[in-house]
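Homework help board

Subject: predicted structure for assignment chain

Our instructor gave us this sequence and asked us to write out the predicted structure in token form, then describe one feature. I got the tokens but I'm not sure how to describe them. Can anyone check?
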Amino acid sequence: MKPILKQVGIGVGSGITVAVFTFILLTSMFATTPIATITLQQSSPHSDLVVVTIRRNGEIIYRYETHNIIVTIGATWVKDYLQSGTTGATNATDDISMSADPSPQTSWTKLPNEITTGGLARKTADTVSAVNSTAYWANATWTATASFTINCTGLHHDPTPGSDGNLVAAATIDTATLIANDQIEIDWLVNVPPG
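My token output:
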């Protein structure tokens, strides 16, 4: 038997409709065979999201959304902060890098072939803002002064281009090709969800 859903309006007959609905609900609760099982799962609009956008002459020519991985030293960095308050975790995690490296590995401590030239060196995000009580957003934009292929982006707790031992998370993207004067914008949505 399929459940029948009917829109219930508020009006003269609404008391009868509510009574009938209550009777059907109670009957189905105590029946030996359930009429229907409905599971609702709320999807959070905020997750561990990375968005890369490339503009050429003001027009968007590339946009890619993906999720990231937390690398081992990134997880250790978070653990140190939670355990000791500051040991090993004193800088904000808002520095963004790029490389042509494929498929990030949890063992990375930096992007192995991080781009440090051509206007695309690692930098502190232009904008960092709270999204809600468990998430923040870091956004940076660069203008390329040479041609590059990008396959990966990293999130660090040190703005020094090419520096090691400070990668927290990394994300792979579909191959993106930039030429001089292209702008690349990278957004990291960092979320530590409860539950």
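Reply (TA_rk): Your tokens look well-formed. For the description, you could write something like this. The chain has two domains: 1-40, 49-191. That's the kind of observation they're looking for.
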